[in-house]
């Protein structure tokens, strides 16, 4: 958390806590935060703060706002609590200090924060803490709760593991899977001698790590792809019946380029280390130093990692997941071919580039021994490009640099396909499609998903891929914030505000304020027509003046015949509606996307209370209503009545839908649920459109003065209330949909 994200002191601490001797935190250049005490009381008149720090130094600084007040420390008896939400003061130094105390004093790496489990990466062998009883207490926190909720509420669950690169996401995700496998395995029936599904789920880990993990500066085993593993259960969660894995955005650029101190995908180094293994013997691999694709990062060894042993594990996992000998050897043959391809160099020839003579042996071995393809063809397609015109196909020679790029592109494409194929095969093995097609096999009724994506990283120069990874992390954090928003009380309202503020700042920087709000609309819950007061309002105006039977015949004549006052009313109505539309949409977008409760930050630090805007707009409508009522024209009166009826109708329908939507969202998450919700909510709108159009025709024909004015005024008052109700309903429904 940087200074910007740090919670405002003014919001958190009351003034009487800042007395002489109060224990506070002060930012420190090396220790990050250091404890201290206040040397003097702080009051409204105070312009300078004097602190005595724990390192016996005295600090004095000027304050001009509440934000500059020091953070207060928690009472000693609270420090070390296993749930951060129990702390009196929940801010950056309090969180860090509590986690530190737990880690150092009691070697506890897990701490609750409401519904979130915070894990500290110990970077040490902590196998002792994963004893069965500890797993039940902590690791179970994510896994067990998800498992319990799934059984108790009949709902699929997902666990998001997030954090920067090297934070321990993959390790934690593996523990969650291990926990789930052990819970379900203990109750599973015998699998007739075959590898159990739980063992297969766990066996997918070494394969995915070999082909999708690398050494980076921050993490020796960094995942370079995102994964969502879905463990399917039946019998209300008592038994695992399969699993499914989805992967995202494999970092392909790493195959052909690695920065200093980094490595290519582990599998290549494992193969080189185990080159004498019977499975690899025929490939005649050399040490990793022999391959251009493996040496760009410098030293290829990772302290404490035995690549050969990892190769054995990979092989075992592949066999366990049902890959046969031929498939396994083809996988390694393809990978060995990629290493040879990386050693193919080019030189500038007379008319085009050509494979350099020093690479002749590589390319011929690659084509004959590895891939069994025509060497002539490969030479042509590495150094030429095919251009298809309308009726013609021509080939264009490539320059040396272009040929290198084309070689690298081929490597990336082949590896990505191999990766995709392996994931597909693993999925088949995890679903056991071929082996157990028994009709008695139970269908999956729900799942627990574990999302582990590559962590956030920043370098001096960030590639586009890194940018995308970081953006994906921010997006995920945003999603997470929205989910946690409904559990404000459990996570700690203040901490959530910090998380949300930090995330908004980043999202704004990356995609701009407009995109932040349009992002809101992309959330699968934007208001349905019936519930969005602004949309329905403007639709009513269009319908009333231009579509309704009263004026549809000739709107021009109709408007021309209106008196001055009525024209003014009409203009007010249209402009008022347009203003209403844009303002409420704007506020709602910001509301639903990023800002908890009723506070919307709009451009810069300006803060707008949503209720203020609503009151302003509603006030405008009241004035407008009064003007309309005095005009007393039948059409204007009709509009009021119809608007009221329309809003009341939609409001009642939306109320009736409330319970339904709850049930609906329980059963159908994802696209189906959204479609259902939208179609359900548009129905009342359509119905009320037809109904109110018919009524408009009736009113314009039959109602006469003086009742028009009285009814008009009453109608507008009712309209006012129904608007407020609708606004509230729409807000509630948007929040529910986000949840
Ligand atoms: N609970 C743990 N116990 C012991 N060591 C751990 C634990 N969690 C993480 N580590 C260590 O930290 C390293 C990095 O963890 P991990 O690979 O899970 O990070 P990550 O968050 O998935 O990073 P990335 O986003 O780069 O994939 C592990 O290789 C392991 O050495
Ligand atoms: Mg990882």
UniProtKB/TrEMBL annotation:
Residues 79-484 form the Myosin motor domain. The chain crosses the membrane at residues 570-589, 610-632, 638-656, 685-704, 710-731. Keywords: Actin-binding, ATP-binding, Membrane, Motor protein, Myosin, Nucleotide-binding, Transmembrane, Transmembrane helix. One of its GO terms (molecular function) is microfilament motor activity. GO terms for biological process: actin filament organization. One of its GO terms (cellular component) is cytoplasm. ATP binds at residues 163-170. Belongs to the TRAFAC class myosin-kinesin ATPase superfamily. Myosin family. This is Myosin motor domain-containing protein. It comes from Caenorhabditis remanei.
